[in-house]
Design a protein that fits this description.
about 300 residues, alpha/beta, 8-stranded mixed beta sheet, two-stranded antiparallel sheet, 10 strands
Length: about 300
């Protein structure tokens, strides 16, 4: 059984995401993190009343992505789902992706299946990819350097949360998602802990998810996210958390994440973004709070 969890906050794109998977999975849970738009809330309630396979949890406050994902895991456990598909509200999965993906998965050996904790989809960033092809390459590749285990999959070190099929039993063994991180780097921390527990993360070579990451655009060959100062705070703070917790487990990839997020962020802000001083301030505030173990939601 496959259950999908969509984490939503103040965005009507949640309905597009829902429509893309409603006929591809067995159950759907939408976690609404205190949306303020009454029209969206009303439409969610109407949708829930019309579809027995859908459940909506209305959080009284924005508890962050990690808490919402753990709510999804709890729900998946309660209905005895084997897999949890994790989605952001601005993601969309093409038709028949799930059935085709698990046709590929079924061709793996039993050992490969038992070791696999996450099946990740490749992704297309809507704002910068207009030709319909999955995004190619990365400044810091996630491939673990091993041979591909099957024509349809490759092993990777970590994967973006949206578009992941998480094996519920593996997530339960690992302890779920770290809620004190609130948002950003939650997926990387989760994936490092999975690998510490002997699990593997596979990325499909054939299937992808459509996703929007901030206000992404291409400038002089660089992908510019235009994150808000608050997002810069969380990214920097949680990079310090990743560095402190996982550096000796996977020094190379932890260093890549830290350098890419903090120093890469400073570079892009300096040359391509506005509100520079405020963003610099939040980056260094995040680093300071990470050093002094000040986590949770930034008030």
């Amino acid at each position: 059984m496959i259950c999908a969890v969509i984490v939503s906050y103040n965005c009507d794109k949640v309905f597009r995401c829902y429509n893309s998977i409603v006929n591809q999975v067995d159950n759907i849970l939408i976690i609404d993190n205190a949306t303020q738009d009454s029209k969206i809330i009303s439409e969610l309630k109407n949708l829930e009343n019309a579809n027995k396979q859908l459940k909506v949890i209305y959080n009284p406050d924005n508890f962050g992505i990690a808490k919402a994902l753990n709510q999804g895991l709890d729900y998946a456990l309660s209905i005895k789902a084997e897999w949890l598909l994790t989605l952001d509200h601005d993601s969309e999965i093409p038709e028949n992706t799930v059935s085709k993906l698990f046709t590929d998965y079924d061709k793996l050996t039993e050992t490969e299946k038992n070791q696999c904790a996450v099946i990740a989809l490749k992704y297309i960033e809507r704002n910068i990819d207009t030709h319909g092809l999955p995004r190619q390459g990365s400044a810091f590749p996630r491939n673990d350097g091993q041979a591909t285990i099957h024509l349809s999959f490759k092993k990777i070190k970590y994967a973006m949360t949206s578009g992941n099929f998480v094996k519920v039993s593996a997530a339960q063994k690992t302890g779920g998602f770290e809620e004190k991180m609130f948002i950003d780097q939650v997926d990387n921390d989760f994936d490092f802990r999975l690998r510490k527990n002997g699990f593997t993360i596979l990325e499909s070579k054939n299937h992808y998810i459509l996703h929007e990451i901030g206000l992404s655009q291409k400038r002089s060959g660089f992908t510019i996210r235009n994150y808000s100062p608050l997002r810069r705070y969380y990214l920097s703070r949680n990079c310090v958390y990743i560095l402190k917790k996982h550096f000796f487990f996977d020094t190379l990839n932890v260093s890549r994440i830290f350098i890419g997020s903090i120093f890469g962020g400073i570079f892009k802000i300096t040359f391509f973004e506005s509100d520079k001083i405020n963003k610099y301030k939040h980056i260094f505030l995040g680093i300071k709070d990470g050093i002094f173990n000040k986590y949770g939601k930034k008030e």
